[in-house]
Amino acid sequence: MRATVIGLGYVGLVTAAGLAEWGHDVVGIDGDERRVRALRAGRLPIHEPGLQELVAAGVASKRLRFSAPSASAIAAAQTVFVAVGTHDGNGGWQTTTIRRALAGIVPEMADDATLAIRSTLPPDFIRQLPWIVNAIRQEAGKRAIPVMTNPEFTREGSAVRDFLEPDRVVIGVGHDPHGRGESMLRKIYRRVEAPVLVMGATDASLTKLGANLFLATKISFANELAQLCDAYGADINDVVAGMSFDKRIGGGFLRPGIGFGGSCLPHQVTMTVRESEEMGTPSPLFAAVETVNHRQRQLFVDRIARAVGELAGARIALLGLTFKPDTDDLREAPALEIATALIAGGATVVAYDPMPRARSGAADAVPGLVVVDNAMKALVGADAIGLVTEWQEFSQLPWGAIASAVRRPVIVDGRNALDPEAIMAAGFEYVGFGREGEIQALAARAAAAEQDVDVSSEGAEPVRTPRKSIEAALSGRAMDRSVGVDAIQAKPSGA
Ligand code: UGA
């Protein structure tokens, strides 16, 4: 099939390269000429694992090419995917970009072509979409075209795999009286083994929104549960693992810490709270999800402040800046808010992230933030270490050596990503989220080992049989999303 993808950001570029991988002829269009030139020269505007290779393979096979806005590329397409930005940069939606894009694209499309909107947009706009599009067609003296939506469910950091092997494909029908749009999209996704769900365009838009709201709710739920675990001296990893074997619950997205960031979850929760308020149907649940999420960042700052006694004059090392590993994206990254709060408290904050673009972006965004290009430069002389992003390399740092290079050996692990046993054995005090029970058990074990006492007979936290395998899987998940609580959960069902 011949497809044109408008907008070559995180969503559009993965879509274009993925469609080419499936054998379609794809033209990727972007209004930013520098971006198009860079892509033609083989340089990607974003860091996304596997994307460089996918783009290179598409270009080499001649099934993928990049172009500035081109009427002929649009006229030749059987399907035009639109993946332009929809954020106003201030926590809200904006539809100006997509309206402008549609005004340029829609009149050029062939009469038998299909329009498929991939951008995430407010349900209200999606409801109006068929009228907006076909009014443009009418004005141009052209026939009505199928107006479809095709929301994406890809995560940054694993977008290539999520695109090529989706859990499901959702096709939203805005205007498709003869089923031409549906059959076109089915052909495009024929290589996918996952279920293809066809529904109304507004339903599709709420499916996308609902999925993200649910994920955000799970994270805030885990953060609340972690608070309880700390208060009762329980271990969140055991609790989540125990819960996750229940098929109704599942184990994914229940990792507590500094909360969710990125361009999707925070924005969509905020917008839902705002819009539902405006519609007269307030969403107390989603409002609470947002409140908990912001509290987590403050809790992290408080824990660092408690660890150093006095923020003013303290030197804090922050490990990681991006909102999650395997991306260079700083949008709504908790690190920015955390660094700002620590600096406001009088601390000197020295941060390191493996991604050069994230380092320069954070230095620009947070006045007073010191950014270094090597983890050790941040760590030496620190009064406290805060782990913000669970990059793989942080688990492999020489913690024993670092303990003697810092001023005070304390780590606040904002992602529950490190192994407290190893960290404590290296000489650090470890502070996590919901891991109080685990830390107490480790401390009791260490004390008992010193006195050569059998802890289980002393009434201390016993070392449970599945402990090691659960720990291995959970710490593996923290650093490598290919295994995880989901993997543990999958065991009993054999799924
Ligand atoms: C999210 C969704 O997961 C995708 O399905 C969706 O397609 C995408 O938004 C979108 O709407 O485009 P993404 O923003 O890339 O994807 O990142 P996530 O993997 O969802 O992580 C979001 C944040 O939650 C990160 O800051 C992550 O560290 C945090 N998180 C995640 C937790 O704090 N705990 C968890 O258990 C999981």
Give a short synopsis of this structure.
With 495 residues, the protein is an alpha/beta fold. It has helices at residues 10-21, 33-40, 51-60, 71-76, 96-105, 123-139, 159-164, 180-188, 201-232, 236-244, 265-278, 284-308, 334-344, 356-365, 375-379, 392-395, 399-405, 420-425, 436-451, 467-479, 485-493, and strands at residues 2-6, 25-29, 64-67, 79-82, 114-117, 147-149, 169-175, 196-200, 315-319, 348-352, 370-372, 384-387, 410-413, 429-431.
Describe the structure.
The protein has 495 residues and is an alpha/beta fold. It contains 21 helices and 14 strands. Strands 3-2-1-4-5-6-7-8 form an 8-stranded mixed β-sheet, with helices on both faces. Strands 11-10-9-12-13-14 form a 6-stranded parallel β-sheet. Helix 6 packs antiparallel against helix 9, helix 9 packs parallel to helix 12 and helix 11 packs across helix 12. The longest helix is centred in the middle third of the chain and has 32 residues. The protein is elongated, with a radius of gyration of 25 Å. The protein binds uridine-5'-diphosphate-glucuronic acid. The site of uridine-5'-diphosphate-glucuronic acid (UGA) has 21 residues, from helix 9.
* Tally of separate helices: 21
For the termini, the CA-CA separation is 34 Å
What fraction strand?
5-15%
Given helix and strand content, the structural type is alpha/beta
Bound molecules: uridine-5'-diphosphate-glucuronic acid
